[in-house]
Amino acid sequence: MQKGFTLLEILVSISITLVLGAAVFQLFQQNERVFSDQNLVTEMQQAARAGIFQAADEIRMAGQGVPIYAQSYGEAPSEETVVILSGSSSTRINLRVSLSPAESFVTLPRPVALTVGNTSTVTVDDATGLYDAVGGGPAGRFVYFWGDSSTTGWQWSRALIRSIAPSSRNVNVTAVSSGPAGVAGGAVQYPDAPAISLEEAVALFYDNSTGSVRRTTATNMTDPVHPVWSPANELVSNVRLLHFDYFDHFGNSINPDSLTERVSVASVEIRLAVQTAQDLRNKSRPVFALSVRTNIRSSRIH
Q1: N or C: the chain end with fewer CB closer than 10 Å?
Q2: Of 269, 212, 225, whose CA–CA distance to 90 is shortest?
Q3: Which residues have a Cβ under 8 Å from the Cβ of 33 and sit 6 or more positions away?
């Protein structure tokens, strides 16, 4: 006669199964929490590194396409060519940069004569980069012309863009200023092909209301001291600290409140601290801090 399991045996086996199942579930849950914590910490560190290195790259390339070489001959600093713009502080940095694809050279006419207040059309070797950056008829966007002049050495002209025709490679502009200060007058003549590049400004700042680092670009540079900024995009979230420190060529600290001080900035130190997006399983929210000091490449020619 076959003998089955007693009720006691069944209860014991069920109890053992439940205990083993609970242990396995607890182990799985613990591993899942550890994995989740690791993901949160990794995401925090990656966001901090990406944010600080992007900011460092922006600062390192500041002044690209700006006629700083010509300006270095000037007797006085110029608000129209300075790299660190007005409004820069410990939590915000405004930079004048340039899009390298938007840089070109004037091919016609020869020589190129630009007079402040006059509108003229020049032909460049490639207008596609300029057109792609600002369109055919931008408002409040400017270009720089610079090169060796026929009279007083290197000079620059800043001109308002009227229109860009990529097919004919024509750029219609109105010159609004020239420099360097004390060297250039109202008219500048370039016997050889001067460079032409788009004036571009960006800002990186800490947004206290959202706890994030944001980046914006200038949409109108008619007043270079007070550009019109576009809506900002978020670069890094869960930010606890963003701080900029400014230094001259000798390593002395600078407060960028005045044009004279901002012209002297040669390097910037960035400090960034980012927190995890949510609590870890131990109810803590770790903070990851980084600092980088980067040199402004274009400042080396001063």
Answers
A1: N
A2: 269
A3: 281
Structure tokens at 255: 């407060």
Say if residue 157 is in the same domain as residue 103: yes
160: CATH: 2.40.30
Q: Is 128 left (phi over 0), alpha (psi -120 to 50) or beta?
A: alpha
In a domain, 168, yes or no: yes
Range of the domain at 247: 46-63+205-218+230-301
Instruction: Report the greatest alpha carbon distance in the chain.
Output: 121
Q: Are strands 239-247 and 253-254 parallel, antiparallel or unpaired?
A: antiparallel
- pLDDT tens across 6-31, in order? 767 677 777 777 777 776 667 656 65
CA angle (93 as vertex; 87, 96 as ends), nearest 5: 85
Pairing of strands 154-165, 142-148: antiparallel
Residue keyed to tokens 């182990």:
27
CA atoms within 13 A on the CB side of 28: 6
Residue of 217, 193, 85, 194 whose CA lies nearest to 138: 217
Q: Reduced to 3 states, what is the DSSP secondary structure of residue 46?
A: helix
The whole-model pTM stands at 0.87
| Whether residue 129 sits in one domain with residue 194 | yes
How many Å apart are CA 150 and CA 148, to the nearest integer?
7
Residue 176 sits in the same domain as residue 214: no
CA gap 233, 137 in Å, rounded? 25
Q: Please name the residue ranges forming H helices in the chain.
A: 7-60, 68-71, 128-134, 259-263
Residues 148 and 103 placed together within one structural domain of the fold: yes
* pLDDT tens per residue, range 265-291: 999 999 999 999 999 988 899 999 999
Domain annotation covers residue 122: yes
